[in-house]
Amino acid sequence: MSNADLVRIFERIADLMEIDGADRFRINSYRRVARTIKDTPTDVAEMARNGDVTDLQGVGKGTAERIRQFVDTGHIDVLVQLEAKFPPGLPALLDIPGMGPKKVGLVHRELGVTGLEDLKKVAASGKLAELSGMGVASVKKISEGIAFLESSGGRTPLGIALPIAEMFADRVRALPGVDRVEIAGSLRRGAETIGDVDLLCASGEGAAIVRQFTEFDGVRRVLAAGDTKGSVTIELADRRELQIDLRVVETDAFGAAWQYFTGSKEHNVRLRERAVRRKWRLNEYGLYHEKRRIAGESESDIYKKLELSFVPPELREDRGEFDRPSDAADLVTLKDIRGDLHMHTVASDGKCTIEAMACAAKERGYKFIAICDHSKSSTIANGLTIERMKKHIRAIRKVDEAIEGIAILVGCECDILSDGSMDYPDDLLAQCDWVVGSIHSAMGKGGSGKLSPTERTIAAMEHRYVCAIGHPTGRLINRRAPMDLDMQTIVKTAKRTGTMLEINASWRRLDLKDLHVRLALDAGVVLTINTDAHHTDQFAQMRYGIMTARRGGATVKDVANCLTLASLRKRIAKKRDS
DNA sequence: GCCGTTTTCGGCCCGACTGTTTTCAGTCG
Questions:
Q1: A437, A442, A446, A452 alpha-carbon torsion, rounded to 10°
Q2: pLDDT at A141
Q3: How far is the CA of A13 from the C1' of B29 (A)?
Q4: Model's pTM, two decimal places?
Q5: What is the pLDDT of residues A511-531, one digit of tens each?
Q6: Structural domain of A269
Q7: If both were cysteines, with which of A231, A268, A525, A563 could A568 make a disulfide (CB 3.0 to 4.6 Å apart)?
Q8: Angle between the A3-19 and A77-85 helix axes, to the nearest 10 degrees?
């Protein structure tokens, strides 16, 4: 049983209670517990077995008892009772834009709707429009909501959404009468996936801006077009639909609006509670004392007035950011990165030569890179045999001598085999300056006689030549689940052995993810942020790794890529000699 | 159901938009 199972259960209870018309504050308690468990990097079921879970934020006597019941028996009485009252497909209707708990309850009660297919039928037959409280417009909205839900296919990865958002922001910026345009929402917070794109615009001519926004090339549907808000969808390369919202505000309230629309919702709730305690009110127009506005032009004004240090967007998740103010000031930035320590060339499955990679890296201002092609067992990735690797090492050394201004380290991405050993012999690894150990095969549980992914990762970290573990959990966002790792043990071993853990900056991976970054930092582990680039174009993905690192609270001193080359070499030597 | 600079009960964030039940409930972010 994983945290994800518990999260699902508590969200389901909350959904069903909502449809049932229960007290909204009680419902909120269940949602709060679900979110806390989601934000907990360690195994909550294990915690429940070994002791007390009421230390967790928002978990009291009642919900702790329900967690324990689920851990002990595999079910929760409250949920069993709720599920007896409603068909299983009903909560899914809450995901439809325009359908809230009241309408879901209504269609179930009045029309016997049990799920999505039923709802489509009653919408088409006209029965839905006959219900009291429903009209032609509501039915149209719901039908469109169903269509959107079926074509949007869930959340969009950061690396797909951010370039699109930037393109639309540029287009709005170019319109007459626009003072400023910024990205807001979960995209600005650097979340690994996003629901929709939020753009914020400062201008006195909202209606005209919104109208032109809805007429941009590539707009597939216009969902709303008012004086201050426009909402459209576009079609992505995989034919899914992505929603883009534009809001227009007055320039003197831009800070308040940017803060408000950046969220997260939970972070904003905390801020507003803080305002209320001071007898103030916080909304998207500013911070108010009675009718008088006391902050709002900039975001930092608002935090300052509430006696908080500025919270960088990546930390605005209500994960304790108000209690950890020292974090914020020196979070790692793209400018701090002096090199990229994981990339491939045509020698294995990359698309560019050593020279091309080195020149592109130098152009970015990097002082060092490590060429890390695949080892022999990664046959699909054209991994290098021992003989080819020996030649490759000589080739890298030669380019390093030829190109001034950047150091090219001999590296390799060496497979961690299923028995925990490394794919290259020690004498070959000893010739490398930098070794990334990665699991690429047998990512399942392990089973009888076989080593688990956790055991293999630990074995690799014990190896003197392994400098870092690459993409430690092996997940592919929206495509492959992470390996079942005991992350607590992994970070402890990383600390003990002086092995770094990678934040793989590819938007397909973002591995380690934010919560694991936090866990590693708390254990005192040094991180390395690398693009795993297979083409010079992919160096630009570094920013996604930076966002993920910042979400986990990583500062300059936590990241090996921010070291000078000399310090980096010293750190590598220290592990080799220990 | 949780929680405490409002501390064991009474409160729990805020405003906009929309459609329709014509005075506001439901939904959303």
A1: 10
A2: 84
A3: 22
A4: 0.87
A5: 999 999 999 999 999 999 999
A6: 254-324
A7: A563
A8: 50
